[in-house]
Structure of Aspartyl/asparaginy/proline hydroxylase domain-containing protein:
Amino acid sequence: MLERNWKTIRDEALAVMDRSRGRFLPEEENLREKGEWGQYTLWQQGKRVGNACQGVPKTCALMERFPEATGCKRGQIKFSVMQPGTHVWPHTGPTNCRLRMHLGLVIPAPGCRIRCTDQTREWEEGKVLIFDDSFEHEVWQDADSYRLIFIVDVWHPELSQYQRQTLSPI
């Protein structure tokens, strides 16, 4: 679904970037060695974030059809923009209860890559990368213009419905 609708998602994200860069807040977890990395969060802990969907109504309407993403209390749905020269330290996510999807929206080539354990990949526009972010991962943005992706966390498929319902939000 993300790959089929990537241009719609991209176009809404670009419109929001043009109108109000203030929606993209700086990454606050001290994960960067250097550079600029902004995030525009639509869902957090299984709940829609304020009026964030007003700027991207088609994207949010698409996501509403997938409760495994919108209802993931241990994840987020957000846009991520990273400027040239950014390096994200090797780090791990807080839980293995989710899988993280990255949909490439604007990917300058070459120079944008992610390493998860011993595999390094480059994003592609319109394509999804899926990984378990509880494993160590690291990002480099060495291209000459910004990189824009859409991040969607979903419940790990091996979790039972009971586990999904009873796990606390993080």
Notes: The chain has a mean pLDDT of 93. The domain at 2-17+24-166 is CATH 2.60.120.330 (Jelly Rolls).
